[in-house]
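Morning!

This is the sequence you dropped in the shared folder:
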Amino acid sequence: MNKVLALRGLWPFNLALLASLGPLVVFSLNLNRMMVETLAIGIVILFAILLALRFALVLVVRRPAWTDPLLVLVALAGFYNSFFASDSGTPAFWLWLAIFILLIVLVAVSPRARAILPKVTLVFLAIVNALVLVNVVQYEGWSRRAELRAMLDAHYPPLSVGGTGEVTDRPDIYYLVFDRYARADQLASVYEFDNSGFVDALRARGFQVSDGAYGAYQRTAHSLGSTLNLDYLPALVGAPSNDWVPLYERLRAPRLYGFLASEGYRIVTMGSWWEPTRTSSLADSSISYFAVPESLRAMVEGSALLRGLHGLGLDWLDPRRRQCERIKYKFETLADLGSDDRPVFVFAHFLVPHPPFVIDADGRCKTVDETRALSRRDNYIAQLRYTNGAILDLIDGLIARDPEAVIVLQSDEGPWPERYAGDEITDFGGDVTSVDWRTVTSEELREKIAILAAMRLPGRPSAVIADDFSPVNTFRIILREYFGQPLPDLEPRTWVFENDASLWRYRDVGDDLH
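The structure's back. Tokens below.
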């Protein structure tokens, strides 16, 4: 038994290098958007999976000399795009297939091949890992990241604690973000959809709805980051930077969470597959559904393994199915999320009606073919209709359970103008194209910035949500009304970063929206 389970020879190193290669490649291609911890977690998880597969395979077959090289070959072919990256039937596909079959045959029939292959794969994996690491080390953004973090820390000092009332008087707070949910007037003008029934239903349930709300920024990280940190983002002085990581870090650990934790709140986050809201270091619990680290998700979604499972009719790893089920899971879990003896703050980030378009108005998961048969407008409106019904059911349940709950419904940004939309059916994270926001029309800018904004503030009839509401004031209002914090509203402003080379330089576009 010990001989069977032992990690013999070079195979432990091969498995380690194999586990590091995929996440490292994804990391190297997203150095300005992926945190180092995401890379590390991805490597550890993949190594654990490969190690478990190795032990299971050896226990069944009981021939490590065969199974160890076969495991590496199958993992290389299944996980990495360099194998079978071409569409089936092309010359490149058949070439890789022939090489793969030849190697398997050699392992099966030739002791010499079984002896040589560990050395060959070790050298190959070591060289490829080293080449990728060189690219990582040479990333010019490393030198500026500390400066960006320091700038954010100085701009967002901890909020002062204290105020009026006891902790037991604090309401439960639900901050529900529905990504790319367009404002009612934009739904009417761009999508020819009347959303007044939903807006009226919110008002009937005690919500104030801003008819002229604009987001503070045109992208999620900037928009949510400013909301959860209760202030606009600082602008960089000096050379431009396209480094998103400090924004992501601040979004996962905003100063609002620190304040609420000091006030005795239990903090619960419900993120999505998008890495910055997948977890939070300051939350008491982070609830997710099949939301794996991005360093693994991006690798698996483009892998031959996934295409092979699709070919066999197996969709349990299909990202579209996971996304459809994730949407419904989050609504269901929120409805059943009870509070303990502490007040609770819940942040839920719903990637709906955000693409990819995966769900019908009645909550049925759609196939790719069904989605492609519909127009972009019809797919978006179907997801919006589902979202509207699920929201009303959810808030009815929350209010019935806790009539004093504070509930915030917002979108961080509107849909992308159609001419800038990419693949909104199958692509996750790549559904948009590069945009120079200096060249968009006023109508396109308004479509992107005009957002849903509704707040339910029980027991505070004097709190009024302005028609030109900005989400940067969301928690300034709540902390002022319920915690006695001296936080006046900031002037509503809308900023855009002009392109991906200047994420920290912003242009005020307020005049362009009116």
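Headline: The chain has a mean pLDDT of 86.

More detail when I'm at my desk.
O.
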